[in-house]
Amino acid sequence: MTENRHVCFTESLQALRPITLEEMDGIKLMNRVDTKYLTTEARLLHILAAAAAAGYRVLVTGEARISPYDSVYYDTAGLKMFYDHHNRRLVRQKVRTRSYVNSGDCFLEIKRKNNKGRTKKKRIGIPAAEMMGFGADERACEYLAAHSWFRAGDLSPAVETRFHRITLVNPALTERLTIDTLLQFKNFRTGKETSLQDAVIIELKQDGRAASQMKNILLDLRVKPVRVSKYCIALTLTDPLAKTGRFKEKVRAIEKTIGNKLVTI
Hints:
The chain is α+β, with helices and mostly antiparallel strands. The chain has helices at 10-14, 21-25, 41-53, 80-86, 138-147, 213-220, 230-238, 245-258, and strands at residues 17-19, 32-40, 57-59, 67-75, 92-100, 105-113, 119-125, 156-169, 175-187, 193-195, 199-207.
């Protein structure tokens, strides 16, 4: 089957009041709870309309209300980070480099999940030229060693993820919403590539002590929570030799949501 056509969100986003990165940086969610959702571009139009009516604001960087991201996930030769997730290890880490394309900023990021399901992220700025390899950067290597149990020499690029992100904030500044569209994946080790077509991954980051307007909006639109990792879905779709049984049901859920078969080339 052919891919679904993509939706243009320009008009919908113009209905939302802007918020700057400086204002966003002032929002501290001290008791943060993260929830992911899966939907389609067509339904996202309804979500954005409801968000605008509820007073949500959209992050604007420069003049852009949609920001392209480029991430490279690192792993060991044996895919330890992937299998820690696949095998339901509660305490686990992911290591990636990420480029914020509009600004040109690039970071080495370490995401750590504890046994209570909480995720914390640490990051350090690196030159854009080190996206595909930071092993010669002593400062970055020391940072990795200080904040993870991995060493740069044990890691190499595994998967690249590209997507466009919309970020919303509620009027009370107690929740943030990241909305990722146009998700594309490339596996550096197998050479295979794929995309999630018109699937949309939403992540709600909220103050656990406050009521959530967005949860009610998503419930009304029949958008349900889902546990999904971009890295794990990308590797499941692009590495035929990896043990991916646990994540195949996630792939089927995405295909059911978009009404299309995901194709890897």
